[in-house]
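From: lab user (bench 3)
To: helpdesk
Subject: output format question, protein + adenosine-3',5'-cyclic-monophosphate

Hello, I'm new to running complex predictions and I'm not sure whether the block I got back is the full result or only part of it. Here's what I submitted:
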Amino acid sequence: MVAYANVSTLLLRNVPLFAMLQEHQLALLAGAVRRRSFPRGTAIIAAGDATDSLYIVISGRLKVLMSDEHGREVILSILGPGEFFGEMGLLDDSPRSASVVTLEACELLTISKTDFKLSLADNFELSLMVMRGLVKRLREADRKIGSLALMDVYGRVARLLLEMADDIDGEKIVVKKLSKQDIAKMIGASREMVSRVMKDLQLGGYIEVRGRSIALRDNILLAE
Ligand code: CMP
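Helpdesk reply: Thanks, we reran it on our side. This is the complete output you should expect:
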């Protein structure tokens, strides 16, 4: 049996997608939303499946991927807290466009297709937030297509590290652990090539590996 936890309006208020809703709309939504935990490595959505729900990430990270019949994968995006997925199939009634798998233990909110569509019809701000999310995704996809077509593997690795970095005490630090295999799947290169490029970036003084995090030096912009 699947365990669902109750969802408070306070939790919903902290979800960017719902931040603009009024209290009575949040209260209605709280009755329609479910909260569930999933262990690492769980396939939440499989490409080609029929669509039924929208998902919102409360905690943890997930990868959005496509694979072929030989098991080769390309990672389209990494999603984290506050982001949502599964909206595409709900909006155009097509099967799932990609698979989504947890990279670590995750807590997700789910809302059914019917309730999501009712909420959208009821609230322009919510529709706007979904559109903004789609635009953000399109911008990221454009950047990715550009870097695949125009950059070598050094540039692609440098750009990915810059995108993943957080500003910590005046430094750009990549703290999220991503395997070299996953980096390779995100930039269309082999794991061996990614290892070589990371080593070269380290030797060249562009990055400094500190345990599980990577500090990026300002000159990494030159490697891009
Ligand atoms: P849907 O097609 O319903 O199911 C798979 C989901 O993956 C999709 O909705 C989006 O939410 C998400 N997705 C697909 N492509 C991308 C992408 N390029 N970047 C981020 N998320 C994506």
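A quick orientation on your result: The chain has nine helices and twelve strands. Let us know if anything else is unclear.
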